[in-house]
Task: inverse folding
């Protein structure tokens, strides 16, 4: 039985078949979900499972074990969303987008040997479409289990939540979300989106290289860049100390008072561990 590496659960769990939103995030090496009470915008539960060490097992088999073994996922909520955190993604200006263009771009960049499902979605508040390819068998399993859940891509919701929660617009800005084996980086220079992409890493040097290279590629002075960090990183880590050598404006992502969290849950983990995920669940 898979155990979550990150878990938050309210003391008085609401009846999960009324006025709740379930948002799940899926990729090849992790699965996470947040359950939100829509009546007062409060966190009911949040769990993160990591299984990069189970590379010999089928992803559907792992998801089946987690989903059917979790009591909060047995009863369906009033809203359900599946967020795919997959790398085969491209942003296309709205004026150039069509389903055919999206499919062709995906096949040109990532090849046509992967017979996954190619999807395109308009990113709210941006004049962009996100075109991405997801594994069809995984999607079939999740749709069968959760009854035609709505689908999003991770990057789309990150961009949407950025517009919703980042009230202050920094001139040069980098948002970084840490997973156990990769970072997702969003770069904005002179208030213009330049990049949103995942980079694998093994140690602190890899992370520093990727972020400094982003600054170099987009002619963004490192000393002026505001770095906002969330995910699996802490103040005692080598990565944190390495980044402080280069970035003068370092911020941990926080959660404002529009999202209600029990005091006991706030003390369990630093807020930046789960802030980006919880914000996605609110703004979906």
Result:
């Amino acid at each position: 039985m898979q155990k979550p590496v990150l878990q938050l659960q309210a003391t008085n769990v609401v009846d999960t078949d009324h006025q709740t939103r379930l948002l799940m995030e899926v990729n090849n090496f992790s699965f996470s979900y947040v359950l939100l009470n829509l009546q007062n915008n409060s966190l009911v539960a949040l769990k993160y499972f990591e299984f990069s060490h189970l590379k010999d097992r089928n992803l559907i088999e792992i998801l089946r074990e987690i989903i059917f073994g979790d009591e909060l996922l047995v009863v369906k909520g009033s809203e359900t969303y599946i967020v795919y955190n997959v790398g085969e993604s491209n942003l296309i200006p709205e004026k150039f987008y069509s389903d055919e263009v999206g499919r062709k771009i995906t096949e040109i960049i990532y090849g046509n040997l992967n017979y996954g499902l190619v999807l395109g979605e308009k990113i709210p508040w941006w004049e962009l479409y996100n075109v991405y390819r997801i594994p069809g068998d995984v999607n079939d399993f999740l749709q069968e289990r959760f009854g035609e859940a709505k689908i999003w891509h991770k990057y789309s919701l990150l961009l949407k939540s950025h517009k919703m929660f980042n009230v202050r617009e920094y001139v040069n800005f980098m948002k970084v979300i840490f997973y156990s084996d990769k970072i997702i980086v969003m770069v904005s220079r002179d208030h213009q989106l330049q990049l949103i992409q995942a980079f694998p890493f093994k140690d602190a040097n890899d992370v520093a290289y990727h972020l400094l290279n982003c600054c170099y590629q987009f002619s963004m002075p490192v000393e002026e860049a505001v770095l906002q960090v969330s995910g699996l990183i802490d103040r005692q880590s080598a990565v944190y100390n390495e980044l402080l050598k280069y970035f003068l404006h370092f911020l941990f992502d926080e959660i404002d008072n529009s999202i209600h969290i029990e005091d006991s849950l706030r003390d369990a983990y630093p807020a930046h561990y789960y802030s980006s995920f919880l914000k996605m669940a609110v703004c979906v």
Summary: The chain has a mean pLDDT of 93. The longest strand covers residues 42-50. Residues 206 and 282 are 32 Å apart (CA to CA).
